[in-house]
Write a structure and sequence with these properties.
The complex is a heterodimer of chains A (about 250) and B (about 650). With about 250 residues, chain A is of the alpha+beta class. Chain A has helices at about 35-45, 120-125, 145-155, 165-170, 175-185, 195-210, 220-225, 230-245; strands at about 5-10, 20-25, 70, 75, 95-100, 110, 115. Chain B has 18 helices and 19 strands. The chains are: A alpha+beta (about 250), B alpha+beta (about 650).
Chain lengths: ~250, ~650
Amino acid sequence: MDLKLKIWRQENAQAKGEFKTYNVAGVSSDSSFLEMLDVLNESIVDKVETPVCFDHDCREGICGMCSLYINGRPHGPDDAITTCQLHMRKFKDGDTITIEPWRASPFPVIKDLVVDRTALDSIIQSGGYTSAKTGGVPDANATLIDKYSSDLAMDAASCIGCGACVAACKNASAMLFVAAKVSQFALLPQGQVEKTKRVQDMVARMDELGFGNCTNTYACEMECPKEISVTNIARMNREFLSSKVCSEQ
Amino acid sequence: MIKFDSKIPEGKLKDKWNNYKAHQGLVNPSNKRKLDIIVVGTGLAGGAAAASFGELGFNVKNFCISDSPRRAHSIAAQGGINAAKNYPGDGDSIYRLFYDTIKGGDYRSREGNVYRLAEVSNDIIDQCVAQGVPFARDYSGYLDNRSFGGAQVSRTFYARGQTGQQLLLGAYGALSKEIEKGTVTSYNRMEMLDLVLIDGKARGIITRDLKTGKVERHSAHAVVIATGGYGNVFFLSTNAMTSNGGAIIRSWRRGALMANPAFVQIHPTCIPVHGDFQSKLTLMSESLRNDGRIWVPKNIEDAVAIKEGKKKPTDLSEEERDYYLERRYPAFGNLVPRDVASRAAKERCDAGFGIGTGLAVYLDFKSAIARLGEDVIRARYGNLFQMYEKIVDENPYHTPMMIYPAIHYSMGGTWVDYELQSTIPGLFVGGEANFSDHGANRLGASALMQGLSDGYFVLPYTVQNYLAEEIRVPRFSTDLPEFEQAEKDVQARIDQLMNIKGSKSPDYFHKKLGKIMWENVGMARTADGLAHAKTEIAKIREEFYKNLLVVGTAESFNPELEKALRVADFIDMGELMAFDAAHRDESCGGHFREEFQTPEGEALRNDKDYMYVGTWEYKGEGVEPELHKEDLQYEEIEVKTRNYK
C-alpha cells in the first residue's frame, strides 16, 4: 500500500508544533500501524533527518504505552484495541492518515507524538491500592469472593492506563480511568477498609491535576481498548456520594 | 581469578531459608532511613522490591525506563503464576513444585535457591490477593487453578489472560503507596548506563534522562538491578521494544560475572513471522495448550496443498492430522515443557510438514469447543483469541491458530549467590535479570513466581543483611572521583556513537545481529554454526563502529541514540552467548546442540562434564571472556534423564 501521512511534529512542550506530510510506499497490509511508522522512520533516517517520535513498548496491546490519535480517534479506526494492534488492512491503498498526539492539558507534549502521562500515576498514588504491606496477610482462600463480583472487579482492573479515555473526552476527563480503579476495590472485600478515603482522595487529585468533568458523552467507553464500561463511572459517583453523605471522614 | 561462593546456608534443604532469616543481620528503624537503595527496574521483581524496601523504612530511588512503572514487561505475561497451595488437592506440595522446577530446568539450577522459591510461592498468592489482584474464582468463591506445561498438577493461579498485568498492578499499587509516602522516589524515562563502584562495592549508577538526554549521577549504599532479560539480542522476540539487558551487560563490564548466557527460552506458541518489516513477535499464552491440540498434516502433500492455498486445515480429517506431541509424548501430550514443544515443532517444519510460510504448526481448539462449547473457551481465552484475530485476520474459533516458536525468556543472567548478590558486593540482581532459579529451561508460570519471590520475599531480607554492615557509612556524594570518571566514560561512549556519522541506522545492525543469532545461537546449535556466529558478530561490531548513523542530538529525546547504545551492548552479549553455547558440549533445556542428541532426537545431557553453572568474566571488548565454574550439587533429588513420555 502507498499512503500519505499527516503527522504532528513538535520539538518539545514549549515549541510550536505543526503538521508535516510524508509519503510512505510499499507498506504490507499485514503489518501493524507502528510497523508502518517504523518503515517511515527508516526512510526518514536514510535522509539523515530526525525520525518521528512516538511511544510504544510491548506491541501486544497490554502495556498501555502506545497512544496516537489517528484520523480523529484514539488508537485509530478499529474497536477495542491499542494502536500497536491496529493493522494496516484497516486502511486502503492511497489513504491519507492524520496522526496526532493525545491532546489534553494534563498531558503535555514531550516531543512529536509523545506525551507526558505521569498525571495518571499521580492519581493512582493518591489512593489506587490497598495499603497491605508485604507479609503478614491471611491465606488467599480465607476470604471468599463471589465469582460475579470478582469478574466485575477483573473487568474494571483490566484498564491499561493508556489515557485514550482522556484523549477521547471533549472535557479531557479522567473519570473512566479513576472509576475503573475505584470500582475494582469497591467490588472486592479487600478494598472496603479504605473505600471512603480512596474515592475522595483520587477524585480530589484528579481535579487538582486539571482533568475535566464527565458530561456523559460515553466517548471514553467507545474508545477504551479494554472496553471498560461507563457503569464504573456510575459506581464511582455512588461511592463518592455515599462517602460524603454517610461517612464521618 | 575471581572468587565466588554461592553462600547456601547450612542445614537441611527445608530449613535453609528459615536458618538464614533467623541469623541474618538487621537494621534498626532509625538507621534504615539513613540508608539509600537504588532499584533499577519496576517490573515484578524491581517494583515489589522497591515497595518492600520503602515499607521497611529505607530510602529508595527507583528507576524506570518507561513513562510509568506500570509499563514494565512483566505486564505481558498472560497465563499465570505457580504456587504450591495444593488447593485442588491433586497431590501438589512445596517439594513437588521444587522437584518439577529443578527437573524442568534440566538439572542446571541450584537446589537451595529453587527450594526457597517453592517455599515462598504460597506467600506470593496471599500477598497478591491482599492487594486486590482479581484472580479467577469458581462459583464457590474460592480461587481457581489450572495446569500448565511441564506439570501434572493444577497449580497455576490466573487472572483471565492478563495475570502478569494484574500482578504488576498489585506491585505498582504498593509502589505508588510508597511514592506517595515519600519513602520511594520514582525516576521515569531514565535508563541506567553504568554502574559506579567505590572501593570495590556498588555505590551508584549513571543514568541518561531519555526526555532531555541529560547524563546524571545517583549514589546509594546498595544497588538492585531488576531490568529483565536480554532476549532482544535476537531482534525478533516476544520482549517489549525497550526490554534490554543493558544494565546487566554494563555491570558485567564492571566485573559482575554473567552466568549461563546461552540459556534462552524459545517459547513454542507465538504468532509466526509474517514479513521483513516485523518489529516483534507476539506470544500466545502457553495456557492455550491446556485445551488446544497441536498438529501438522500427516501427509506432506497436504502440507504443500495448504501452503499453496488449495486446501484448508479444516478440510483435513482426524486421520490426516499428525498430533505429533501426543504421538511422541503420550504422558504429557500437548503439555510438555516449552523446550521440548519448540524443538518438536521445528523438527516437523524442517521435515517439510510446516504450514503457512512453512514455519508454522496448528494449534486447534476444535475438540475443546466440541467438548466444552464455544462459551467456555471464550471465557478462558477470549482476549487471546481476539488478539490473534486482530493480528492474523483469521477467526480461531473456526480455523486453527498458526503458531511457531520464538525467543521469549532468558534463564541466564548475572551470576548471583543465595542472597541474590552478584560478585560485586552491594550489587543485587533479581527477577529475569539474574540466572538463579530456572536452570536451562523455565517452566510456564514460573517467571511471575520468581519475580515476585525475589522482590517481596528474598531481597528485602538479603539486602537488609548486607546493609546491617553499612550503618556507619554516611551517604555518598556524587562529586566523588569515581562518579566523575563513570560519567565521563558514559559521555565518551555517547560521543563516540554520535560521531561515527556513517550511513546505517542502529536497527540495521540490530536486525543483522538478530538474524545471525537466530540462525546459529537459536533453537538448534552446532559447533560450526557457533564458530561462524562469532566471526560474523565480530564483523558486525567492526562495521557498527565504522558505519553507524545516529541522527539527532545527544542532548534531546532521541530514540535512535537509545537504540544505538543498546545495540552496542547486544553485540557484546550475542558474542558472549555464542562463547557459552560453544563451550557447552551437551544439550540441556533450551540449549540444544545438534551433535548431542539421542537417536529419537531428544536432548542428550552430559552430567559428568557439564553439571555446573558456566559463568563468564569480562576481559575487554572483543576479547575472549574467561570461564569460571560453579559446580552444582544435588543432595535431595536424584538426577535423572528428563522424560515426558
